[in-house]
Amino acid sequence: MLATLLTEKEYAKWQKSQSAGSILAAMNAADSEVSAAVACQISRIENSVDAIVTALDRGGHLIYIGAGTSGRLGVLDAAECPPTFHTPPGLVRAIIAGGDEALRHSVEGAEDDSEAGVRDIFASGVSASDAVVGISASGRTPYVVGALTYARSLGAVTSGISCTPNSELSRIVEFPIEPLAGPEFLAGSTRLRAGTATKLVLNMISTTVMIKLGYTYRGLMVNVQPTNRKLEDRALRIIQQITGVSLDRAAELLEEAGRSVPTAIVMEKKGVPRSEAEQLLSLARGRLDVVLGE
Questions:
Q1: How far is CA 49 from the centre of its chain?
Q2: Catalytic site includes residue 111
Q3: pTM for the whole thing?
Q4: Which of 36, 225, 255, 268 could form an SS bridge with 243, CB 3.0 to 4.6 Å?
């Protein structure tokens, strides 16, 4: 059965005895087809995003779950949300088969344990208020299928990302997403085109969800945490761009606002002290566009 999967088929354009340059060019050509495969799934991704936004807006959480490369990609996307969007702890989190050890080393057999998927979903406290996204290039990974079957039985929003048509994972979730990137450059090595397609979809999901929930403003990372020089520079430029103040004034505002970019912007735009700016943001659930009357 595995041999019949799209991700396991031999890449038709493979040639023997290639130079390094021709191999690189061929890989690049193969990768260029991935974005088109993702584009075909935009309506499905939209349906998933809308359901996730509704769940999070009502107090739920977003949980990714996968094994191997798929699990690592989920962990990566979840880990990027706090520094990018300043999301609350646990709002977006990820589960990988085999636990943290599997982030750096292959944990043999972990992906084949469907009961472990159920146990991990249970242990993470998933409930009907949450959204769970299963990630499996083949769409048949027992760990992921078991986890999503259980998550759906709890009443959670369920979505699945797989790179094979009409996959088992797609059939058990409410919102299936199937970017068909095609056979891998190295047959079966789904860290390649399937991994790229998955990363693109995850980028789209988390970014669009955060935009819809108001964690950004006009395409800017207004919730960026200025924890190093690069991020501080970015924070100051954002304050300048939105308020029109000088760099020196932006630095003053950032400090007066307790290093919070949205607070600094509200202080300047509304002409209010830090305490009132923070209150306005709290009442608007952090949405800068609401506070600024947009």
A1: 11
A2: yes
A3: 0.89
A4: 268
